[in-house]
Design goal:
Layout: H1 2-43, E1 47-57, E2 66-77, E3 83-87, H2 88-91, H3 95-102, E4 107-116, E5 123-132, E6 137-142, E7 166-172, E8 181-192, E9 198-201, E10 212-215, E11 220-225, H4 239-249, E12 256-259, H5 260-274
Antiparallel strand pairs: 1-2, 1-4, 2-3, 3-6, 4-5, 5-6, 7-8, 7-10, 8-9, 10-11, 11-12
């Protein structure tokens, strides 16, 4: 009888502790939800839409056909005077990836750039001013921003992150959904040192390439990019080589995070070289 009462007391104690922990868990989740909402509210305007025309030449190996497509990307405004950075790999779609397997059988050119702010349908004329294919970055600048000052990301207020740290990725849905800002909450799953420092989100997002990643307290960690491995080969080398390369290429399509400090340095270097 005494043992039964003792077991009951222990069970009641465990249940009481569990109930006491519930508000803490709820409070932590509420804080994460609040930070995501605040980040969307604060930074959504810095996520701009870039419209342009993509011309694709299939090359002689693939029939020599030419196609033109109107494309739309979400990119990040990084200065008040209308400088935007995008993930270079998204600019030409899968062309870069296919070229690595086909020996540059395809070629692509871009033209008629416009930058749209928020849900506005009126765009500012723009042009590419620099590229860094190794870092998967391309810089696009408004040609005539007037005297307007644009909301932009502040790389000076950046932070590093550790494995397990919560992060928030912000992107925009497509035009079908009114380019609605969307927050994605996940954590850092790993950090590489080769070929450079890159953060691996636990749940990477291919729809957020070129877009910002923040700590839970609102400091920018970096931008999502694609990191292509070194791939060599020839279009006629056979499917065995393609299969071997694809094993490597699968890891390049993950939306890794390039640190903000590296982007700031690359921006300064690219603009200096472009003058």
């Amino acid at each position: 009888m005494h043992r039964k009462n003792s077991n009951s007391t222990i069970l009641n104690f465990i249940m009481s502790c569990s109930l006491l922990m519930l508000p803490t868990v709820y409070e932590a989740n509420a804080q994460e939800d609040t930070s995501a909402a605040q980040l969307v509210s604060t930074h959504a305007e810095a996520l701009v839409t870039v419209k342009y025309v993509l011309s694709i030449n299939m090359g002689q190996r693939m029939g020599g056909q030419e196609q033109e497509q109107e494309k739309e990307l979400t990119c990040s405004m990084i200065s008040a005077d209308g400088l935007v950075v995008c993930a270079y790999s998204t600019l030409t779609g899968s062309i870069e990836l296919l070229n690595r397997l086909s020996g540059n059988a395809l070629s692509a050119t871009t033209k008629d750039f416009k930058i749209l702010i928020g849900s506005s349908a009126d765009g500012f004329d723009a042009e590419i001013v620099a590229r860094d294919t190794e870092l998967d970055l391309v810089w696009i600048r408004m040609t005539d921003p007037g005297d307007q000052s644009f909301a932009h990301l502040d790389f000076a207020n950046s932070a590093e992150a550790g494995i397990g740290d919560p992060i928030v990725i912000i992107r925009r849905a497509g035009s079908t959904f009114g380019r609605t800002p969307v927050a994605i909450q996940t954590r850092i799953g790993g950090i590489s040192s080769k070929p450079r420092k890159l953060y691996f989100p636990m749940m990477p997002s291919m729809t957020s390439l070129g877009l910002p990643v923040f700590t839970a307290d609102g400091r920018i960690i970096g931008l999502s990019v694609t990191q292509f491995p070194e791939v060599t080969g020839d279009f006629n080398a056979g499917m065995s080589m393609m299969g071997a390369d694809m094993t490597n290429l699968q890891e390049s399509i993950l939306g890794l995070v390039l640190p903000a400090q590296d982007i700031a340095k690359a921006t300064e270097r690219a603009l200096e070289e472009g003058r």
